[in-house]
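User: I'm putting together a teaching handout on how sequence relates to shape, and I'd like one worked example. Could you take Right handed beta helix domain-containing protein from Electrophorus voltai, show the sequence you're using, and then write out its predicted structure as tokens right after it?

Assistant: Happy to. First the sequence, then the structure tokens directly below it.
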Amino acid sequence: MGDVDAGAAGELRVTAAEPIADSNTASKEHEDDVEDDVNDDSGTDELSNDDKPCTHLQRVAQGGSGSLPDVFQTSHLVFYERFKAYQDYMLGDCKSSEVKAFTVDYLEKAVEPSDWRALWHSDVFDVLVQVVDVDYKELRAKVELVLPMQCEARGCELTEESTTALLDATLNRVPLQDLLVVYDESGDFDQTALALEHLRFFYKHIWRKWDEEDEEDEFDYFVRCVEPRLRLYYDVLEDRVPAGLVAEYHSLLERCSDTFCEFSSLRNGLSSDSESELDNVSMVEGLRMYEHMEGLKRKLRIIENPLLRYVLGYKMNCGQHMCSTKGERPSGLRVVHIVSASTSVHVLHSLMTEKLLPLYSSKEFEVQFHCDPAVAISGCYEGDVVILCPGHYTVTSSITVADSILVEGYGLPDEVVIEKRNKGDTFVESTGDVVKISNLKFIQHDAIEGILCVRQGKLEMENCVFQCETTGVIVRTAAQLLMNMCDLYGSKGAGVEIYPGSVCSLTGNGIHHCQDGVLIKDFADEMDVLPKITMVNNVIHNNSGYGVILVKPDGGVVEQQPTVAESPGVKHVHKLQTGRSTPELEYRRFSSLSGVNVVAYVLFRALCCGVWILAASLTDAEGRAEQDQTCGGSVNGEGGAVKEEVGTKSDLPIIVEEAGPVEGAVPSEFTEGNDALKRELVATSVRKQHLQRRRVMELRAMQVDEDLLSQEMFVSIHGNQFRRNGKGSFGTFLY
């Protein structure tokens, strides 16, 4: 996300910010910090200590011919150094409209006004210049060329005459962000170098063109924008964000920037007193462009927020790194890949008699031997089989299963272990049409996205063990997962993450010692349907959060009662408020003109009224759906059948499989989460169905997608046991 050297991220312990105080104050501050350097080890006080008249910053040599002097090394500051500088010294509690003023005030205190040298840096040249004056309000410096000229050019010829002409064209004023302070051992220019680094970093990685026009200008800009963007920058730098999500963020950022430029150009071209039809059309087009831009900004905020980034994830680029399928071999043969670093004669004989001869002795099969399971799987074509002999295998890269193959361990899961070292987005990715994995144990280290991700196709897993470190098994939209008799533990996120539109069947599994057991995601788009879920006879226990948690939007409702009656240990509701603008506020932001075109205003108000009437009707539909759900559902209190009766013809077909009597004496407090989960999923699906139909009716669609409107949600949840989960069996997170 930037050009920061991650390897050196922990070396520098000097921060940016405070202007150099007098020696008495600085000495006292230094003594205080020495006594309590654990609480504040930023190193700012060392810059203020006159007893050490030397620099505390490192130097970095410029590449090339070596004719240029060294500059201060400031580009690899660690997170807390930038955080402290922006929060305490540069921005404080300013509003977004006050950022420029606060920045100017900070620079006036930290940057020397004249008589210092710097490299004027650009993509094509570096030139040594002397700063003779600083225009703080314009964030520019007046410079003079140092003679004889010292420069380095990249891809162009640069002479003294051409450089002088370029400076004359700019009135000898260059942006402060383009200046790299020349290294000086005296320490007199440390604060200047650090202040310019913070300025440069802020406008490159933190500031957005649209921030100054933000409708939430009354709120603290640092808390709302700077801190989350700064954390995201360092999360990306330290490989804590999946590569697909990083690509999605940069794509959204570029699209939002382009849309804002188009919107600003259109807005500036409108006349305040014109009654022309062209201005009316431009006004409506500008409104649509504004709404599109607000949608992009909302997606950016979701990715910037660590919590929403976790619970919502990303959809657009989730499969951009998928390997293409190979299909069948041209020869028509199928290969049995035997993976074994070394094995005994007895094991090989047993493998021959129990597996190879009975199942794969026909002429269409041949056998290949491998030492690395990743190499064996990458060499598979459709219909191949991979058999792993007992052993502990270590892989350093992700394993992608792109074709329909069978991967199985010959022995118990604890005897056939695959352990991943090194960082990567996922451990195992499945994209094949039908993939089967059995009798294996996976041990995860340093993965970012999860131990296993089903991006598309169908994956059947049986008798596997997953020892997670970050997140667990992920089932993406339109993917299918059948997970039977598996054991999953250790996830710092959810053990199983289920995305909208997927099919997930969990039978007889143990999910324990994770943050949450199962996480069901419901995106804000009403066209995203809930997954088809089967959960039977699973034991979900000892998770620090909930056994099962449903993430869904709150629809902007200020106060929302849960659809399932509260019972101890079963359900809690968490809400994250999001700001929403009114039509009047949107119009004021859209039309920053002295006057308002009357016709365009009428068109705008009509459109806004239609939108808000639609929102009201959707809220009414949601309320009716909840009421129908509450009246229509009946629950057998002892874990028996759940019956859903929906009265209107337009309601969503919902299949709820009824559970028979539970065998064995299982206390009711361990099974009460089954009914709560079923009710919540059914109620949420009904509300989504009403939203879909209302949207179609309001838009007066010429053709309705009957497949979409006839989508059904299949729910089969019974026999599960929820034990000793920190927050209860089932909860809902509203965002």
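A couple of points you could highlight for students: DSSP finds 16 helices and 38 strands in the chain. The CA atoms of residues 40 and 691 lie 52 Å apart.
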